[in-house]
Amino acid sequence: MKIKKKIIIAALSCAVLGTIAYFAYVFPFYEFEQNDYDTSLDKILSLDYLKTLAPLFIIIGLSAIGIVTTVCLRKQMLKKDKTYSRFAGREKSGNAPKQKPVPFMVIRWIMMIGFGFMMIWGGLIFGLKMSSVSIPILSCPWNTEQMTESSCYYLSHLNELFELPIKSILLFFGSTLLFIVLLGRTICGFLCPMGLIQDIMDKIRQKTKTEGISANEKLYSTLTPIKWAMLLIFIGLCFVGGNFCNFCPAVAVSPILAGMSTSLYVSGFLMIFVLIGGFFKRRLFCNICPLGYLIGLFHKISLFRIQKDCTACTECGACYEACPMGIKQIYTERNKTNVTDSNCIMCGECVKCCPEDKALSLTCAGINLYTSSRKDIMSGYTPKKK
Amino acid sequence: MRIMITREQERKARQDKRFISKETQTAAKYLRSIDELSGAPDGMKPFLDTLNRIYVEMQGLNATQKTIGTYCVIAPQELIYAAGAVPVKLCSGNYTAFFVGDDIAPRDACPLVKAVAGFKNTGLMPVYEDCSLMIVPVTCDCKKKIAGMLSEQCEVMTMHIPTSKGDDEIDEFVSQLYDMAARLEDITGNQVTYDSLAEAFRITGRAQYELSEFIRLKKGNPYLIRGTHAMTIMNAAAYMPAEQWADALHSVNDSLKNKEKSGRLVTNKKLPRILLTGSPIVFPNMKIPLLIEEMGGIVAGDETCMGERGLYDPPVITDDSFDGMMRALANRSLRPCPCPTFADNSQRIYRLKQLIKDNDIQGVIYHVLRGCLVYDFEYKRIEEELGQLGIPVIRLESDYNEEDVEQLRIRIEAFIELIKLKQEPEKRKTGRRYL
Amino acid sequence: MKYYIGLDGGSTYLKAALIGGGKVIDTMVRNTGIDNDGTARKLARELCDNNGISTSDIGYIMATGYSRKVLEVADDDISEITAHAYGVRLTAPKDYRPGMIIDIGGQDSKIIYLDSNYAVKNFSMNDKCAAGTGKFMEVIAQILETTIDNVGSLSLEAKNPCDINSTCVVFAQSEVISLVARKYDRRDILAGMHISMARRIVKMMKKSEKDGDILMTGGGALNIGLHKAFEEELMRDVYVASYPQFNGAIGAALIASERG
After folding, report:
1. What pLDDT was estimated at residue B435?
2. CATH architecture of A303-379
3. Of C81, C101, C206, C254, which to mutate for an interface test with B (greatest number of B Cβ within 10 Å)?
4. What predicted TM-score, i.e. pTM, was given to this entire model?
């Protein structure tokens, strides 16, 4: 019953988004006559900056409207169910018991924010020193003030890549592969600015105590074909004369924040989808991100692993519920020690939510970075000091 | 006519008095045995007092809030606390009630259910009579039919437990929990709000925190406390509000920490360490743990639902919304639960292996109540799997009477000898000894 | 050389065994009577005297059986299951692969499962009901006006074994009386009883070939009719231990030799 409701809600949300997209189309940032890549620190610190930020404000505003509409629609739909309707709409002033902050998570947030900052404004402040290094993250290279280059442009425009001199091609593949092998999908969990945006949306949802979409195999099996479609479009669009950057949601964030004006085409609409989806389902875009999928293909040779002690595991499923990528094998595996999956973004949520001592650990080249501990889980319940 | 009525009443009064006297005598006898068993930690008193109050003095919980009875640990206590009521576990271990219930329930039904039927029939036990609602998760056929019987005399709510643990089944159980919360609201008149649920999580979380400490201390040294005492502490949790129980367990934990530091163990001998698993061991049916320790073993691990399993798994909140907390409860109640109510219960074998590793177990006693088919079915597989690890397993069947004590005794004695003969005579490793 | 005595205190008979140098030297049995301990002391003294051993040569005395805890003459006691498992190390035939032991005593019957080193793996007992114990055979022997020592050889002479249906000793008694009244040959009735008893015991066994060979001990092992009935029910060879009714005492003595 509840799943049918979710489908109806999803369909309604799409209709809402479609209407929003129409208005987005009408707004004058869909396609500019002239793109303006000229930016500087002075421009950012002046009032002109707010004018360039206007498209981003509109995107955020429309996303907010979309989220509020979906929540209200859901409440309306659930009114018919006698039991749920009782509990909806009651006040939520208190706080659920929380674990105390863990060093791993604090470092992850600091790195995400720091790296996001560097990828957006890094060049403006520190100069373009590392621009020949290509990192495979979804931080739009139309922002020419990025600290490093993003591999996503040349990977989605392979015909242009092979027209470059051999040295540049080798440098490109070399640096991309180096990052993939050294870091694997920790790039997704620790560095990618799109990931930061989605995690911020999730934090907002947790703070407002809104109900999200929970782990369900059917959901993940629906997202998998969408992921392959995205991958196909990502790699193949350039060969049929299209331009992936017209679709990529990252375009709507990074260049604008750096003070440039770029034509958004459909990417604004997709960004709204990413924001609304990311609100209800943690890291929804990461589940369909083509770049993430490509990095994930190399997970077997990456240095970072999730290790499991199968004897200590009680199969409580908390890791599966907490995982933004819906990896079930962490919970169901009973024999092997290595449970790293190609989808795993090394966010560490599974280890944080595991209630058994030393059952799960995140390791880098064999060194334990973060291990599950019952004391951490129970830290929200320690007895009051008398 | 009036003379007949009063004669009937007099007869019933005499029957009731006999029942009460027999019941209190048995309960008092077992309480004494547990009390007299050596090696009790300081701080056992509140637990023994609770059991004494409920079974010997025949008083109820004496709570100001309403009492809600549950018949299985799958029904989460957090919801009951959130509705401003007090939960009490009503699975019964009483021999006298079993004797009465033997006539009501069929011959092949399990003694636990017969005892419940007996209590309900006589109407003399305050913990049963005071309940405003009884929640019966249908985990086996006997529970299903006893729910029907109980509904003739009391408000009953059945919960449907799925037979497997897929995502859809968890969703279905979440809606069961919503129904349970709604029913609790109707009975108690209080609302289950986000705040009351969060507070309830803190209350049971506190109890679980103390239990984690307790288990950690036991893991450090299996001779710190006898299994009989540990099981008594867990049994008392059925009748004490969580905060009270957590406070009492806190002092026991402190006492155990002191014992660990000073090296004052239960015994200096290396008694065979036995794991007790299977059908629940409910007070006062403490025959088997008492016999094991009388015959020279120590119950170092316990995988029964009236024991540690009831409060072991904490709910892990992955989503801070109200629905997220309900999902956390549903996940905690179903996924890690190694109860044989699930069709495929392979995870119980892993759980046993974990306990064997943690507590350095040398032998497993598989306890089956007569008529408990779900546990009996799993015996063969567990014996094979643990046999591959070199751990001997024997099956002990028992009933709720004292006629089989001698037979249990000889089997337990032979089993303990089996283990003793397997182990090499050890040299004392540490010189330190508390005399 | 040190000598060791094992005492097996049953409810009817008290058995004693003397071993020395890892071999059985002598065995003795007496009716238990009222004074368990006194009978045990007498047995121990007689064993010593008959074999020219002084009491100071006795290294250790181990008791087992029903009354083991009251035999104060012993240094320690051990359960019958462990004692029987030890006993077969000396009393089993040379080619016996451990294995399963069927111990048929006067009041109970036991199945003991051993691993390849003669250590006890598991066991099951029937001590709730007399069917499958020596008592059963005793009761029937009495009705048929013979003694328990003869029932085995008589049953082997049977031409047409009867079918005995009763599950309980008391009802089997009435069934046998009615069969006698109907002029059935007592050898046929005896054969039927043996089959019935074997079936009862086989029901509580796990009979897989890979668990080793099957060995009979206890008083019931002296009954050749029962031996044949077992072999036919299980459809395989069944071994018989030497000194079967002393197996428990011999096992206790062997354990004593490890202690003293």
Report:
1. 46
2. 2-Layer Sandwich (3.30)
3. C81
4. 0.84
